[in-house]
Design brief:
single chain; 346 residues; alpha+beta; globular
């Protein structure tokens, strides 16, 4: 009898040790998942923290005030034109050994759009937006950090290059998709109010609004068409432009009057930031590509993507809600399979 009691007493510490070990393991998993959230946003401060209206890029050790007209005119040297649109021309340029991009107004007709884009660049400086280096409003010119990989539209062609091929994994692609949703969340909750991406009427145009950085993160770049949602006036915007078609655009963006009525911007319905949410699954489809493991990410994101495609904008999740799901999926997939190469993860 005494021997049985002693055996039971000895088993109690063993049980406690096991419970303690299990608790400790759960704590470690929690810390690991939190660290993955942080890893997924390591581009938050790529150049360190600078005071407002200052910048730091490349090998710069200290923050510098935004360049003003005298410096933009005399210190920035244009090298060649690398892009041109209706609103602005973009030139690869150089400033004190640093490659920069100089944007100049293309035609006076789009002066208002150009100045709006510049105002947004100033107001939204942060991890999700291209770095502003300088500006000269008098000359309708501003300077930003140069990203040689170009727009997000180039992602597949960049990853096909030999030196980047090892990065063509679900880890890289899912993180970029997460960063896209994070950028939308920032724009919808920005210091300049709730902003809607009007210049995103098709997949190619949407992808062209973002730049791919050399360390494979993304930043919003083209902010010329970023109106604010005015909650006091119904919370809707009208982006204008042209009659839209296709599955990429949200139902509220489609022409509501039928084929017999000539198209008019004034007759278009207004919409809000939930229009950006509608487009998340299509952008994610492109970003995830066809790499091993991408199908698993699609499987885990299937439900939230279905919610993004609800016809009623009010019933769609917010970008914050979608971002929460993306973070969970990314963390869980990284926990289960942090190294590339495994095809069977279900």
């Amino acid at each position: 009898m005494a021997k049985g009691v002693n055996s039971a007493v000895r088993s109690v510490p063993v049980v406690l040790v096991c419970l303690g070990a299990l608790l400790f393991a759960n704590v470690l998993i929690y810390i690991y998942i939190e660290s993955l959230y942080q890893i997924s946003e390591t581009h938050v401060s790529p150049h360190g923290v600078c005071p407002p209206r200052h910048f730091k890029m490349g090998t710069m050790k200290n923050c510098s005030p935004w360049l003003q007209c005298p410096s933009v005119r005399t210190e920035v040297r244009k090298l060649k034109m690398i892009g041109q649109g209706a609103v602005k021309q973009v030139f690869l340029s150089e400033w004190k050994g640093h490659k920069v991009a100089v944007s100049k107004l293309s035609t006076p007709e789009y002066r208002e759009d150009f100045l709006h884009g510049l105002a947004m660049l100033q107001a939204l400086q942060g991890p999700h937006v291209v770095l502003l280096v300088g500006l000269c409003v008098e000359d309708h010119t501003f300077v930003t950090e140069y990203h040689p990989l170009g727009s997000l539209l180039n992602l597949d062609s960049v990853l096909e290059q030999e030196k980047y091929r090892k990065l063509d994994t679900w880890q890289t692609r899912l993180r970029l998709a997460l960063e896209y949703v994070s950028a939308l969340h920032y724009l919808h909750n920005s210091p300049a109010g709730t902003r809607v991406m009007c210049d995103s009427n098709d997949l190619g145009k949407t992808l062209s609004q973002f730049l791919l950085t050399s360390d494979f993160h993304l930043v919003a770049n083209d902010l010329d068409a970023l109106p604010a949602v005015d909650r006091a006036r119904g919370g809707l915007v009208k982006c204008g432009g042209r009659e839209l078609q296709g599955d990429f655009v949200a139902p509220e963006q489609l022409w509501p009057r039928g084929e017999g009525v000539p198209f008019s911007d004034e007759l278009m319905l207004g919409y809000d930031e939930k229009t950006d949410v509608w487009k998340i699954p299509d952008v994610a489809q492109f970003l995830l590509g066809r790499v091993p493991g991408g199908d698993v990410a699609h499987f885990h994101l299937f439900q939230i993507h279905g919610e993004c495609k609800r016809k009623d904008p009010a019933s769609r999740p917010s970008a914050r809600d979608v971002l929460g799901v993306y973070r969970t999926v990314y963390a869980n997939m990284m926990k289960d399979n942090p190294s590339p190469g495994s095809r069977d993860m279900l």
